[in-house]
Amino acid sequence: MFGYIRINKAEMKFREFDVYQSYYCGICRDLKRKYGAAGQFSLSYDMTFVAMLLTGLYEPETRTGTCRCMVHPLEKHETRNNIYTEYVADMNALFACYKCRDDWKDEKKLHQLLYGRVLEGRSRRLQETYGEKLRRIERLMQNFEEAEQQQEPQTGPGAQDSGYSRLDTLAGLFGKVMAEIVTVREDEWADHLRRFGFFLGKFIYLMDAYEDVETDIRNGTPNPLKGRYGSPDFEEACRTMLTMMMSECCSAFEILPILDNVEILRNVLYSGVWCRYEAIHEKRRKKEQDG
Amino acid sequence: MTDPYSILGVARGASEEEIKKAYKTLSRKYHPDANINNPNRDQAEERFKEIQAAYQQIMKEKTSGYGGQGYSGGTGSQGSYGGFGYGPFWSFGYGGFGQSQETGYEEEAHLRAAGNYIRNGYYREARTTLDNMAERERNARWYYYSAVAHSGLGSNVAALEHARRAAALEPDNISYRSLVQQLESGGSWYRQRQASYGYPTFGGGDLCMKLCCLEMMCNLCCCGGGYGVRGMVCC
């Protein structure tokens, strides 16, 4: 994934950070156990959040342990593991494979493909465990690729309009993928989780488009925000859209009966997700001032 | 239906947290998974369903002001993607989305059809009908319906844009204006909550430092942040 769904550490209690990190390290261990070192390198913050969300909602039996890391052999870290850290580790590996395939197609990076091969070999097991879910995700990813390849609207009447629906379409497809990830099973919470994941996914897609818009213009790669970039209300429009996504996402979140670690989850949803946005925004502002 | 608050055993004025606590305690006790060996498991399941319904109802009321559309779980979901109900069902189904008295008669047949689809939660069909109408037929009401249909399908960016256009074309129309407000209000609700969690700010590169420290820590902790963390944004 992209690493946008993260904590704002500055606003977090020490104890909360330790718990957050213990899940991060827990998933990392699951990844290592199931996918080896190649899997470990794919771990992202987004997935740590998903694991904590599902843990808070379903309250599964959780094992606490400690681990030493290869890179940090002197310090012991707390780890937490349960069925959801394992689930998330699987999803993480799956997306690492997609990403590798993507990069291979995009830029022909050989090492990405090799890395992907390693992971893919190990993730064949995934097909058996999550058959139907994987097929749905696969289909969505395909639709996404096709939609992205479609011609971007040219200027002229109606261009602005198709620009909006293009944005909603692409972000929406990504949102549906995210919805599949957070909806572990069809139970009493499936509707809310799906809605939550859908808008979180839309947020992630938009953030990514926002971050990459300059590069995409330079490289001629597709980006639905291209048409708006440079207009005086660009920043404001982006912020409004991003806020809209998060508010939809959070309105679904607040319905879920989550008590454990809810403050950590809220730190992410109300503050952490804006860290990267602020960093990019600030960088652009400075550049504008200097230039 | 019995009072949902008494089913959960909480007072009417209880906070969301208290309600969630009460729900958790009860659902742990009555959840089918916890009653597999219980001889009275049918009764337990009945009770669980009751608790579930009560919780959903209370939270639906409590959170109806959150987000653009408030609550929509489970209803009005014929639109798309198995059970997806992003729909503004509650807000429009009972509220502002009434019959349009002023234009009711003259309304063009297609537009009227789109309105009916929307009222019944068939957003996809409404979308098709609307999209098939010619550019010159697209008046304020068209944009209004279009906004509701977009919103029902989860396309909130286009929804806001079209609601704004409807309101701009007919500034005196109250339902157009309130739709814009409704779509925007999610933002103000969110920003209010955000205030208590601290918005990340740049106090002389302060956040930057902290972000980078976290980045390094996590990288060292177990494994490299991997592709998930694509370079550091700030430093």
What is CATH's topology name of the largest domain in chain B?
Serine Threonine Protein Phosphatase 5, Tetratricopeptide repeat
Largest interface: A-B, 83 and 74 residues
H and E string of chain B: HHHHHHHHHH
- The total count of strands of chain B amounts to 0
Distance from first to last alpha carbon of chain B: 59 Å
Give a short summary of the structure.
Chain A has 291 residues and is mainly alpha-helical. Chain A is 70% helix and 4% strand.
Describe what this molecule looks like in 3D.
The complex is a heterodimer of chains A (291) and B (235). Helices cover 70% and strands 4% of the residues of chain A. Chain A is mainly α and 291 residues long. In chain A, α3 packs antiparallel against α4 and α7 (190-219) packs antiparallel against α8. Chain A is globular. Chain A starts with 13 loop residues before the first helix and ends with a helix. Chain B folds into three domains: 4-62, Orthogonal Bundle (Helix Hairpins), CATH 1.10.287; 89-195, Serine Threonine Protein Phosphatase 5, Tetratricopeptide repeat (Alpha Horseshoe); 205-235, no CATH class. In chain B, 57% of the residues lie in helices and 0% in strands. Chain B has ten helices and no strands. In chain B, α6 (123-131) runs antiparallel to α7 and α8 (156-169) packs across α9 (174-195). Chains A and B meet through α1, α6, α7, α8 and α9 of A and α2, α3, α8, α9 and α10 of B.
Name a few traits of the molecule.
heterodimer; A: 291 residues; mainly alpha; two-stranded antiparallel sheet; 10 helices; 2 strands; 70% helix; 4% strand; B: 235 residues; Helix Hairpins; Serine Threonine Protein Phosphatase 5, Tetratricopeptide repeat; 3 domains; 57% helix; 0% strand; disordered C terminus
